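hiii, so i know i said id send this last week but things got crazy w the move. better late than never?? heres the sequnce for the chain we talked about at the cafe, plus the structure i predicted for it. fair warning i was half asleep when i ran it
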Amino acid sequence: MNEVRVQLRARRGRKESPGSGPGHLVGRKYIKLLEGYLHDLRRHYAHPNRVLYYDDVVVVYLLAFFNPALRSLRCIEDASQAPGLRGHLSVKAVCKSTLSDANELFDPAHLQGLIAHLRADLPDLGRHDPELEALLNQVQIVDGSFFRLATDVAWAIPQRNGSGKSSAQVRLNCQMCLKTGLPSGISISGSGDGGEGQAAMAMLAPGQLYLFDAGVMSFAYLQAIQACHSHFLCCLSPSVNFAPFLMDPSPLTEQDQATGVISDVIGRLPGASKSDPPREMVREVKVKYTDRQGQPQILRLLTDLLDLPAHRIAELYRYRWQIELFFRWLKVSANFEHLTSQSKNGVTLGFHIAVIACLLTSLHTRQGVSKYSQMMLGLVAAGQAELEDILPIMQHRERERQRERTRQAARRAAKKAG
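okay and structure toks below
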């Protein structure tokens, strides 16, 4: 009888043996690169009774980013007991309830220093047109994308799909640096937080060129950009009026026409009864293109860059689609389609960890985000390959792309000389 009681007592409480987490975790090498900064995070929210610290939360979420099997708090709790992860933690296990409390407590702003430190180490990952290099180094691409929450919460944005089923979503407001191909600013919006333009204004800086679509565009945003001595290039919706300053549009060159430009006009935005447009002269460039259904369409571009050739305006706006690669990375490769945290603070913390993971990956691979690198890095995020396995493939692809860019530049130079 005594032996049975001893066995029962031994079964109680948390076991110290490895849990059901994966035996091999992708991304552990990154933890060693961050040890110094993780040590500094520990001093935040210090309390004699605290068990789970800020650096522990960053470690488990960073490893969860690279391991798609860890997409719930319970899975993270199980994996935190595995030997491969426990060696990086100060606790025997990251309990589900404790991690949920940490999501609401730990301020993501404390990670800004780490993000800035990693971004400063990035090389120039872009390979751009040398004639546009001066402008491209200043480009910030602005957009937003919706992500579903695992459960319905009061602060979320209610959405309905085509079948009428409702879901709770949040909007990730992102600002991407074109030079590095990585985010330079993010924020989270829920119900009552305003539109994309209002969120974008909080991330403005002087000396930049902001690219964005009609969904972000607002008169207040345009004025704020000019007020901080920056420039804009955006798409205009059909409902926005434009008043030409001269009756005759600017003449188009052969390069303009080859790029699809059909009109180049300087004028003003008339405004509306409840909103005032920028007072300075602006420019409307119309570009024809073919949509995915094969139908001809016209794109209206608005900018305050009055001296740049029209074909350069059209070429410059094409870079706006680079931000879609980052959203696709999050939703497809990094499995951020469903968010586990129920608090706005926790969701913001998760996206900050995603930015750190992307910065670490780019530092290691020396590659920016492209449709090729996204596919290969997706294998790493899925735990199907190590970074060392894909690096030779990515480097070979980049050499091929560089040779093609050189050939294209030679063709353009020969055509211009002829």
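btw The two ends are 100 Å apart (CA to CA). thought thatd interest u
miss u guys!!
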